[in-house]
């Protein structure tokens, strides 16, 4: 993909036309090759962009406007359908280029496996990296039905790469018993069911460290986000997730990149999920891109 010209499709509202002048880069990872339940998240990035036209450009939470942050929308990475390993390689190469250029990468998924090559690329630049992971699921499996490339494995992969004690999961309410036991035995932090209050306790311990944030939209209760591949009852509200984003923005952590994954528009004809995701992206841009300055 080229960075020397603007994406020709729908772009996220108020995107800057010039890559070089931008502080952050939005990019899509339209992959759902390994999902174990319902496919469709490969259409998430495009729909999040399309519905962003309905957003207000001003955030009353942060008292900032989108024009205050320059971000370039690079469009979707043209991933080869069905080829998981090649897709992951392409994502890592793409993010390497963004990081080399000194930009903040903000990815839109796509299934959660797409976060693995991004986190790996970020870790190469920031060896003291910590991960903040918000999700309904542990994603700590070594494989799913014998397949190590699965949307149920990305957090296990990054934990093994950077050390489990550097990974912090919030909102978890589903997973195999073995996954929870592995996390406990290896010193990985898991906050079951809740996000905001445990996040407030953890953030001071990460002050000054580079942090990558990965958010699976299914951390929200299905009442707030029905448009996802693996819905799971008992989740948090959209109000709590927004508050968590703002808590990170007010903290002393050094946010160096982020993604929002698993939006599957086909399962939500009201477009509630895509609209929520779009608002979350706005708050991430306004709250986190400034954290790297």
Automatic annotation (TrEMBL):
Swiss-Prot/TrEMBL keywords: Hydrolase, Manganese, Metal-binding, Polyamine biosynthesis, Putrescine biosynthesis, Spermidine biosynthesis
Binding residue positions for Mn(2+): 112, 135, 137, 139, 216, 218
CDD domains per UniProt: Agmatinase-like_2 (cd11593)
Pfam families assigned to the protein according to its UniProt record, in alphabetical order: Arginase
Pathway given in the UniProt record: Amine and polyamine biosynthesis; putrescine biosynthesis via agmatine pathway; putrescine from agmatine: step 1/1
Free-text comment on the cofactor: Binds 2 manganese ions per subunit.
Reactions catalysed: agmatine + H2O = urea + putrescine
Highest taxon above the source species: Bacteria
A single BP term in Gene Ontology: spermidine biosynthetic process
Any GO molecular function: agmatinase activity
EC number: 3.5.3.11
SUPFAM superfamilies from the UniProt entry: Arginase/deacetylase
Cofactor(s) required, per the database record: Mn(2+)
NCBIfam families assigned to the protein according to its UniProt record, in alphabetical order: agmatinase
The protein's role, per its UniProt record: Catalyzes the formation of putrescine from agmatine.
Family to which the UniProt record says this protein belongs: Belongs to the arginase family. Agmatinase subfamily.
Protein name as catalogued: Agmatinase
Source organism of the structure: Anoxybacteroides amylolyticum
